[in-house]
């Protein structure tokens, strides 16, 4: 159903929001300007967006396209402030304001990979400033109209009435839904309004030469880190392998909309999925469809067949951002918390097997009790961590008020049974319970909290991290 209140059914021409599937269109618009010599992939971003602070390291257009810029994700920053994207109206000026407050990057540009919407918002702004057109006009003139994508536009004004648009919903329980619409005027990272037919038209254009050869090729060329290692990301597209078959795809999620668009170039197969319920697992749905049309394939050949040593079981912490990795022995198999099965090889390396039998694009090595994971062209070292059972007195010593100007927000941290309750001042409804993860570290969903201690062991601050914001320091307030 496109509209539950009015019992409007979904049709092939129903318009949905595509979430991060939108990024490939932003990348294409950028690459058109590169192809016209009006931009260079090596250009410094501050040449076009001087509002970005000078972090002491040059950020290039290519690094924005490939998520190797080190820029923090503005949406995660705002969520840390107590204002997640579904609860406040944001526009492109707000994005620049959030970026302008940041005094540091997650990492030196080009040295690592971290998915960030910020880079694609900046690319949309750069397209506007270089072309002299609005982003909507530029993409309509150079992409949507020439390709015949007649139902596609950007949600650059969430109040605008859009014909045949499906309402987005959040699933509360079986058969019970509530509306969950995006109400923000940000675009480039997401915000594409489209249909499954238009998305398939786009995929066809990628393969039949209707885009400039440079643009089509660059979109599908993997991003390299500064040391030459390839990442799993191209430009607005992930370069995957599904059961040994090459897959170029991207999923999307905005408010209650879910999306997936992918191509299997060697088999000339494209799949587009658009949904208006937030419990839709579009990647799983897409692969269920792919299994019906792809030739019968077997799991990718892997040398990882030896049962891994059970001594690997335990908790590990990332030496980079504190994220945990727990390996647990279940049914005589070593597994991660997400259900990946550890497969070891005779040479001491190991990898992770998915439930469908394929090997995740992650390799690992063990040395001196530390696990080095290699994934998406990035390497993260995990050190074994001790089990943590803080006493009530330990929790009280961490309690206090902590502030960060880059968010900006002040947290009230209170000791409670089982962990630490954290409230963003001014947003009491946004409290979070952090429970012990490992020694001197607490976790709440995907967010980590780690105390910062002075020479005498007293807590002088806390560090907050998630997968898109690393090691954000909050100073302890004394009053």
Major sheet details? 8 strands, antiparallel
* CATH topology annotation of the largest domain: Beta-lactamase
Beta-strand content bin: 25-35%
Please give the count of helices.
Answer: 10
Low-confidence stretches: none
- Number-wise, the strands total 25
Structural class: alpha+beta
Radius of gyration over C-alpha positions, nearest whole angstrom:
23 Å
Oligomeric status of the shown chains? single chain
- Give average pLDDT, whole number: 92
What is the CATH C level class of the largest domain, in words?
Alpha Beta
End-to-end separation: 54 Å
C-alpha geometry: globular
- Second CATH tier, the architecture of the largest domain: 3-Layer(aba) Sandwich
Helix coverage percent of residues? 10-25%
Strand order of the largest sheet: 12-11-10-17-16-15-14-13
- The domain count comes to 3
Q: What is the CATH superfamily label of the largest domain?
A: DD-peptidase/beta-lactamase superfamily
